## 1
Amino acid sequence: MPAALSMAMPARRAFARAALARRLSTGAQPPRVLVTGSLGQLGSTMVDALRARFGQANVVASDIRKPAPSQRASGPFVYADVLNRRALEQVIVDYGIDWVVHFSAILSAAGERNPALGLDVNINGFQNVLELARVHGLRVLSPSTIGAFGPTTPKDLTPDLTIMRPNTIYGISKVHMELLGEYYCEKYGVDFRSLRYPGIISADSPPGGGTTDYAIDIFHAALKHNRYTCFLQHDTRLPMAYITDCVAGTMQLLEAPQDALTQRVYNVHACDFSPEELVAEVRRQHSADFAIEYCPDFRQAIADTWPRTMADAPARRDWGWNPTLGTADIVRIMLAKLHPVYEQAAAAAESSAAAEAEAPAVVV
Ligand SMILES: NC(=O)c1ccc[n+]([C@@H]2O[C@H](COP(=O)([O-])OP(=O)(O)OC[C@H]3O[C@@H](n4cnc5c(N)ncnc54)[C@H](O)[C@@H]3O)[C@@H](O)[C@H]2O)c1
């Protein structure tokens, strides 16, 4: 009889765990990493962090859009449509990829505008990545979201394991992603990892069509017009994080040792606020007469189904999730980053108006 079959039950379980750990050991150092959807809101900051850690040449950025010259100059970039499994496989093989950070997605508001596209990219795209991870032994990190929860989920200190019956295409596709990732991990030993991001706030790249985008738009509007029309109600509290905390946490989970992980999908919470609390902070730090109007649209119904705060003790315990920035810090950073951009734009507009005024009139 083979040794494994003759083992007592506990020894057999330990053997199975060790075998799973061996199968999950996608620990090449430094790993070659592919980032899908790298030109989105979060992608370029994530690519920068990965390149700083693993080396420029070891991180391949990809998307279906054309990168800016600076993005192309900062390291390898390839066109990769996650819906085309064969083409994606060619990139993985050609570049000897070990880990995939899967950022291609259609976000909540964009998904409600085009459900067919949301289903296709979020479900079929993810299935392609996961299947290639199985075939080629890759580690896959694919973020989930607070949008994976739904109207019947407890809204305060929402735990990792709770009712998950979302009613948006985005949420449904993310629950599918979480469950399928766990299934592939259990059944085939695919090293799948995920964390449920809150709304992510950043200044360097525009948001991609989510329900928390107001918390970015408001800074542009404050600096441009000193007024903003918010698409959510004044008291809609949602979990949020600044992008540096988001990327730092993603790196921590990506690099965490296998045996530290007690689950495959983790809640992460950094801070939470409502539009009126954000407005109060913008008035305090930027302009006391900043004007706000609330005109809720279809995104209100989405936000109403999401948690207000999340419980994240397992992420803190297992892999050291430790966000550092709260609401006042985020407002300070966003204003400091965007202020020079709008000052420069205003100066350029002024000098081109002056040049126009000085130009001799053309007589026809
Ligand atoms: N930004 C947030 O606040 C937030 C919150 C929760 C979760 N997330 C998750 O984080 C990840 C990244 O989000 P983001 O905000 O950068 O999204 P984004 O919408 O800004 O970017 C997504 C990128 O995917 C690309 N893409 C679309 N279809 C594709 C396809 N067929 N093949 C390859 N690429 C394709 C787009 O061109 C885009 O650059 C997503 O999984 C998203 O669900 C983001």
## 2
Amino acid sequence: MNNQTRSESSRRAYWTEQTESACGFMAKMRDYPVKECGETLVPLRQAVKDARLTVKFSDKQLAGKYDHIFYLREGLVKKFLAVAKEMNNLGWFLKVEDCFRSRVMQKCVGLQKSVFDQILKAVIWENNGKVPAPELMLRRLMAFIAASPKTGTHLSGSALDISVYHAGSLRPLDRGAPYQEISELTFMNSPFIPKTATHNRLKIRTILEKYGFMPYPFEFWHFSQGDAYSEYLTNSGKPARYGAIDFNLFSGNVTVIGNPETPLYSLDEIGVQIEAALSRLSKKN
Ligand SMILES: [Zn+2]
């Protein structure tokens, strides 16, 4: 890595280029055809237990108030277990950070302080200290947070956020940044992370891809299969079989979300959140 690459301005330019590229990606996802197959979701904890594999699940509540729903579409579970087994064979284990999200959970994730504040800080940095208008903030949020049910694959029960740990030391593999860090290091192919981290990202994604889980290019921890992201990324030409759904945990029923392109956040809401985040950030400094 040369001095040019390391410089602040190249980091800023990379951040802008990647987040803008994510907006283009999301526009494609919004229009991507979906032919929902209606398949149910099943609990991953039980599947892991039955397969006698080592997998950890995050015990941190989502947005500080929701227990995670570690359920995945039934048709993906065998493949998930194959990934987990391969990791175990390498002396590693998967930690599932997040899995299915309901609409309410998804909205809370988008506005949770830990994520929103990081994105706002990054956008202020991108704009040389200027607070962004809600429109720009929403454009940047789109890279990391689903702007509508249609563009968020956690709502399809087909996505996983993961970390990977060494089974011996119980330390995470270095991927250049922790889960949910939002910066120029977050993008899968970030040139600003150390070589070992690049290598680890590659090793991890190779295993997931082997079993059909496609890496999301704008977050190094997000993988999915059978949804619009993965069909588009593999250039399959097929419609997504998993779309945005409401899932009834008790009956196991899956219901397609109507008008899934409807935005989850209004510009007014983003404006209010910017003010709240600024007040939090000023107290920290
Ligand atoms: Zn994710």
